[in-house]
Amino acid sequence: MGLDCRELLDVKEYEFLINWFMRKQKEYQLAELDEPYSYDGYSLYDQKVNQLIAEAAIAFVETFQREAPPLVFTNLFHLAELELQGKRNRILKAPKSLQ
User: Does the predicted TM-score (pTM) go above 0.85?
Assistant: First the structure.
């Protein structure tokens, strides 16, 4: 399973979450936070990440009337972060199942 968790979500759910996270990361200006790396989980960045993941889980249930595995929210949060930075690796070749 890749970072994008497409095996766990349908296309609409995936698009909803990736766009939701990108919009919220811009709104909260997470990329502009100037903090040293923290490994204790209490930095402002860590607090915002946890807040956004909790909000995303609620928004997902409200939109799709089902819960998604917690891994989906963490992975798509970071995938949205990479997307906004322009660092997301693109699939260069279709998976063998589609060829």
Answer: no
For residue 65, give the DSSP letter: S
Q: What CA–CA distance (Å, rounded) separates 98 from 40?
A: 43
Could you tell me if residue 87 is inside a domain?
Answer: yes
Question: DSSP 3-state assignment of 3?
Answer: coil
pLDDT range class, residue 31, cuts 50, 70, 90: confident
Q: What is the C-alpha to C-alpha distance for residues 17 and 76, in angstroms, rounded to an integer?
A: 7
pLDDT in tens, 46-61: 899 999 999 999 999 9
How many domains is the chain built from?
Answer: 1
Residue 92 sits in which domain range?
Answer: 11-98
Asked if residue 4 is part of any domain, the answer here is no
20 DSSP 8-state letter: H
Amino acid at the residue 27? E
φ/ψ region of 66 (left if φ > 0, alpha if ψ in -120 to 50, else beta) reads beta
Q: Which is higher by pLDDT, 35 or 33?
A: 33
